Amino acid sequence: MKSIVIKCGGSVMNELAPSFFDSMKNLEVAGYHLIFVHGGGPDINKMLELHQVQSEFVNGLRKTTNEVMEIVEMVLSGQANRKLATKLHHHGFKAIGMNGSDHGFLQADYINEQELGLVGEIKQVKSEWLKVMLDHQYLPVITPIAMTEKGVKLNVNADVAAASVAKAINAESCIFVTDVEGVLIDGKRANELDTVEIKQHIDSGEISGGMIPKVLSAVSALEHGLQSVMIVSGKNEFYDGSKWIGTKIKKRTEVLQ
Ligand SMILES: Nc1ncnc2c1ncn2[C@@H]1O[C@H](COP(=O)(O)OP(=O)(O)O)[C@@H](O)[C@H]1O
Ligand SMILES: CC(=O)N[C@@H](CCC(=O)OP(=O)(O)O)C(=O)O
Predict the structure, then answer these.
(1) Ligand 1 touching residue 41 (CB < 6 A)
(2) CA-closest candidate to residue 48, choices 78, 19, 69
């Protein structure tokens, strides 16, 4: 089964273009099963502000107290997942929303409870559910909330969750959909970057903020056997049936002298 995991960032979820959905149809025509993992960072920020709850980011991850977690879950499961599943349905996809925490589908451990609170890294994905859905041509739309062995719900960065799902189901590719046309270097889209160049651009500060978890998740997915990873815009077409538009992240193969 050829499958692709598509991570849709909160930055662009509310402004996905019709040509974005056409690209998804092109992927289905090319024989791919699609799985969505979504974010919702900007909407979480707005809701936290509305409720006057403070939160801060540590290395790109939201420090998550119990109070913050209630709002994270309300926004991700209650709004973002619903909005995206409905939008996909309107565009003709058989989208089914799923919470990562349901039946321990995404199993996680704390990254550092002291420093980050209820923030997880995924240890295991119960992928048999996904396979059943994909066999019946459904399109799963997954919320990045995971559960510990003891049943505690944890907030997971959506880029990291998407890469974990892609690795677990041996997807061919993982596509990060965001609000820019790819990774910008000197203000212009790089069509290709390898894993070594990625690390250099992070060190130089050219790649920063929300792009860091994306490219690091891309590198990790490639190191775990994915064939390709793309970073594309949700505001445009990203696949016309033969050619991709965005930044392709690839493994460095040759040894530098
Ligand atoms: N080199 C870069 N190229 C493109 N975007 C970058 C780069 N460095 C930092 N960014 C920032 O990363 C953002 C995308 O990450 P983020 O806001 O977390 O989006 P999402 O919600 O889609 O995950 C871009 O809008 C941009 O501001
Ligand atoms: C731990 C952590 O940082 N979780 C993220 C989950 C949502 C997310 O990743 O959304 P985007 O993809 O839109 O950034 C958060 O609370 O914002």
Answers:
(1) yes
(2) 69
Q: Is 40 annotated to bind ligand?
A: yes
H or E element that contains 46: helix 41-50
Nearest to residue 36, comparing CAs of 235, 148, 174? Answer: 174
Print the SS3 string covering 37-97. EECCHHHHHHHHHHCCCCCCEECCEECECHHHHHHHHHHHHHHHHHHHHHHHHHCCCCEEE
- Probe ligand 2: pick from 106, 155, 174, max atoms within 8 Å of CB? 155
ipTM above 0.85, yes or no: yes
pTM above the 0.90 mark? yes
Q: Is 191 annotated as a binding residue?
A: no
Atom of ligand 1 at shortest range from CA of 11: 21
The per-residue pLDDT for range 203-225, each reduced to its tens digit, is 999 999 889 999 999 999 999 98
The ligand whose atoms approach the alpha carbon of 161 most closely is 2
Q: Which domains does the chain have, with CATH numbers?
A: 3-250 (3.40.1160.10)
Ligand 1 atom nearest to CA at 178: 22
| Residue 183, ligand 1, Cβ within 6 A | yes
Amino acid identity at 96: I
Span 53-109, pLDDT tens digits: 999 999 889 999 999 999 999 999 999 999 999 999 999 999 999 999 998 899 999
The ligand minimizing its distance to the Cα of 38 is: 2
Q: Is 170 annotated as a binding residue?
A: no
